[in-house]
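Before the break, one more example. Copy the sequence into your notebook; we will annotate it together after we see the structure.
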Amino acid sequence: MVRRADQGANEDASRRRVGRIRRPLVPPADHPAKQHATAGHAVHDVRPLVRGADQPGTITSRALVIGCGALARELLEVTARIPGLEVACLPPDLHNRPGGIPGAVRRRIHEARADGYERIFIAYADCGTGGLLEPVLADEGVERLPGAHCYEVFAGSAEFAALADAEPGTFWLTDFLARNFERLVIRGLGIDRHPDLEAVYFANYTRVVFLSQTEDPDLLALARRAAERLGLAFEHRPTGLANLAAPIVAFAGRVGGPRSAPRRGAN
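Here is what the structure looks like once it is written out:
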């Protein structure tokens, strides 16, 4: 059975030239053929940079946001307004195995420091790690997005809590999940091959809430279609990007302060 607390682990799974960085670029954020990690391939072998900002700006030291690939579009939108702040994304499929997120984030932090980045921000919430990401970030001296998952990040903690309390049987969609619903939910959970699983997975759900980041009628139609596909009521709550942007903008405003550094004795 898919529970609200576990939903991120099941869901959460344009090539741009980077100026001075010589790394493989991330594939398009929603490309179905490229999203799935192959069993046996080490996560730390994938170090895709989404975007590099080389314009002169207020950030004088090298600063990097390391984020979830499911947030790639949104992170590009937010950081486009902050000259000098660069973005790297880990594969979104890590959400299918959230136990791998802390180690992958630690490795990427070490790689970023080896590449000369002095300021680092982690664009992950807890994301199903059960608190295991927190000691990694404490060891490394970096901060992350607030909240338990991207739904809380986008909606804001108070609004998300109110929505969840009003109806615990809520299945959440973001722009990314609406765009990839068939791939990540229907095919990802095997419902396309075993239709009887749908009743098992969604027996306790009563509605779909679409937390939209953009005003896109096509995505709204996809989200409605997803609710109809599951036989659930539908509700649309536009969130925009303000709640995602706020901690990143705050981080950018602090990059002139002391350099982030690992805690003594950290691995």
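Residues 4-148+242-253 form a domain with the Rossmann fold fold (CATH 3.40.50). Residues 1-6, 8-57 have pLDDT under 50 and may be disordered. Try to locate both features in your own notes.
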